[in-house]
């Protein structure tokens, strides 16, 4: 690694951790001391660890998409290190710096910039298609999840979400077929697309269940039942989607918290919903720090000299 390359890497790490520290302090400042309890600390740490395990699904989904455009087979460890090292960069203002970081980090793996760009664009398309499909299922089978303020427009919204999900899937499939013909039979098969889509579709509700666990562990006097669990998971997927597509919001900061509070406030109470949303932001940040630590471990393991095998 050249000296300039090393300095750029160090500068990038400093920017990432400075951005994370800033947003961590910003989130913590919004928590009222009178509402905090000692039980919140282990609950938040546990939820953050669970969120980290959920992100392994997203890392594998991105790996499958990248391999669709790359001629060589790269291990999960190699691409997961890139995924988790770049994940924290989304807290640098713009909400796109983690994609730029992947371009920088993939150079050491011999992955072309065109391949990384294709992987990033297809990842965005696949995860949005998965999110819209899940939301379409929620509003179709449980229209009562939509706010009462849109009572007269529920049928329209249900149809709009379902059409958007179907359109996203159809457009994605058409692009994949056209791209695969250009790149050859080895490249992006529909089987790989389905696998990445499935992983993303599992990640979102699974992470929503982590939020459910956090609310339950907060012991705020809320009675949990199946309907409330579904509403929290639905609210999380809505909040995640809006935060994902909002330009300029680092990691969806502010957008996700406001959306969660708006959807869950009438059921859980405004203060409880806001407190849970802010705590969950700290949990996700902690989970991504754990992912960064895993990336460092994986990189150091790969950097160790491999023992030579003598032939007899």
Please tell me about this protein's structure.
The chain is an all-alpha fold and 312 residues long. It has one domain (3-30, 40-301). Helices cover 74% and strands 0% of the residues. The longest helix has 34 residues, at 270-303. It is globular.
Tally of strands: 0
Gyration radius (Cα, Å) is 21 Å
Count, helices = 10
Order of SSEs, N→C?
HHHHHHHHHH
- What is the terminal-to-terminal distance? 36 Å
What distinguishing features does this structure have?
312 residues, 10 helices
Brief rundown of the structure:
The protein is mostly helical.
Secondary-structure map with pairings?
Elements: H1 3-29, H2 40-67, H3 76-87, H4 97-105, H5 113-141, H6 154-183, H7 190-217, H8 226-245, H9 255-268, H10 270-303
